[in-house]
UniProtKB/TrEMBL annotation:
Top-level taxon in the UniProt lineage: Bacteria
The keyword Membrane is annotated on this UniProt entry: yes
Protein topology in the membrane: Multi-pass membrane protein
Membrane-crossing residue ranges in chain numbering: 15-39, 51-75, 81-104, 145-167, 187-209
Protein name: Methionine ABC transporter permease
Family according to the record: Belongs to the binding-protein-dependent transport system permease family. CysTW subfamily.
Domain (ABC transmembrane type-1) ranges: 12-206
Matching Gene3D superfamilies: MetI-like
One annotated Gene Ontology cellular component of this protein: plasma membrane
Origin species: Bacillus coahuilensis p1.1.43
Subcellular location: Cell membrane
Keywords: Cell membrane, Membrane, Transmembrane, Transmembrane helix, Transport
Amino acid sequence: MLTFWPRIVDATVETLLMVGISLVFATLIGLPLGIALVVTREGGLLENKWIFSVFNSVVNFFRSIPFIILLVAILPVTRLLVGSSIGTAAAVVPLVFFTGPYIARLVESSLLEVKPGIVEAAEAMGATPWQIVLYVLLPEALSSLVLNITIATIGLIGASAMAGFVGGGGLGDLAIAYGYQRFETEIMVITVLLLVVLVQLIQTIGNGLSRKIRRH
C-alpha cells in the first residue's frame, strides 16, 4: 500500500491542477456570458432579443449534454487544441466547455437577485449600462457569486473524476485504473475520501467568504 502513496499524491495534484485551470478559463467564459444574458434580456439594460436568444441557446445546448458524452464528442477539438486526447491537459478542454455555460447560468441567477430599485437609482443618477454592471450589479451580487462559483468548483471536481474514464488523469483516473479495473478496494476508498475532503474544504471556504462579503 505504501508504494501507492506517491501515485495518490500525484493524482491529487493533477486533480487540483485540472480543477484550478478549468475554473479560471470557465469563469473567463461564463462571467461575461452571464452578464450578457442579464443585460440583453427583456427589460435589461441593453435589451436585445436576438443576441439574448443566441447566447441563451448556446448555454442551453451545452448544458443539455451530459459531461461523459461531451467528453467523447469533442475529442477532435481537444486533440486540435492540446495535441492529445488523454492526460490532464486534455481533460481541461471538455471541463471548460462543460463548466463555462454552467457558470454563465449561475452568474445570471446571482445578478438577477439584485433589487431592481438599486439599478433604477443608478440609472436616475446618469450611470451608463456598463457602469451599472461594474459598480452596482457585480458588487451587489458578489456574495451570491462567490457561493455560485463554489458550487461550480464542486461540480468541476465531480466532472474531473469522470474524466478518468478516458485517461484524463487525477483521482478519478486512479480510482478507475486501480480501484475498479484491478479491484484495489483500498485505493478506491482513499480516492473517494480525498474527493469528499476536497469538496468539504472548498464549500467551507466558499461559505466563509460569502458570509464575510455579506457583512460588509
